[in-house]
Structure formats: structure tokens, C-alpha cells
Design brief:
The protein has 109 residues and is mainly beta. It has one helix and six strands; from the N terminus they run E-E-E-E-E-E-H.
Length: 109
């Protein structure tokens, strides 16, 4: 493998919008979505979230008639400082179900 190569199984699509990040035992924090694929997403967080943390990201995906609210269980894979934007947090999805799963598939494919 080439060092620094993208190791993702599925490509990501740009998704810029508000998000709420819920880390167990902490108050919800406002963040921003960065990108999304079938296997996970990246978000911007005002505070770091350690790799390995399981949390939840809530956000809206654009739809044909209206946006779809998604609640996504995720596991943090990395967290990198990004200056004034805070921290870029890369995640892998846990078990997406129902409308959230359908919305992610529809957006990412």
C-alpha cells in the first residue's frame, strides 16, 4: 500500500451542514458535517474526541422533497486539529437502521 493512500472501501461525498455530536457522559456539542460515504463520515468538532470513542452524530441529508434527519451511531477512527475550525473527526458507522440507513445509501451511492 502507498503511504498516505486512501484506505476507504467506499468513496466519500462532500456534505457541509450543521450536526450535533453526542458523546456519552457529555453535553451535546454543535459540529459540522464534512463528508459522507456508505461506511462513515467526517465531522468538524469544537473539541477533540479520542479515537475509539463510540458516539452519535445527528444531521440532515438533502432529499428530493425534504431533508431527512439522520441519527448515526459512529466509532471515532481519528481526530486531527484543524485550526479555527476545531478538530476533524473521522468516523465509521455503527448499525444504521430504517430511514437513516436509506437516506445515507441514497446520498452516498
Amino acid at each position: 500500500m502507498i503511504p498516505g493512500a486512501n484506505r476507504r472501501i467506499h468513496p466519500r461525498k462532500v456534505l457541509r451542514g450543521p450536526a450535533t455530536i453526542v458523546v456519552p457522559g457529555q453535553p451535546p456539542r454543535d459540529g459540522k458535517t464534512w463528508d459522507l460515504g456508505l461506511d462513515g463520515m467526517s465531522v468538524l468538532s469544537p473539541r477533540p474526541i479520542p479515537p475509539g470513542t463510540r458516539c452519535e452524530v445527528r444531521f440532515d441529508l438533502p432529499g428530493v422533497d425534504h431533508p431527512t434527519h439522520v441519527t448515526a451511531p459512529v466509532k471515532v477512527l481519528y481526530c486531527s486539529y484543524c485550526g479555527a475550525d476545531g478538530f476533524k473527526v473521522g468516523t465509521a458507522f455503527g448499525d444504521l437502521v430504517g430511514e437513516s440507513l436509506d437516506a445515507v445509501k441514497g446520498f452516498a451511492e
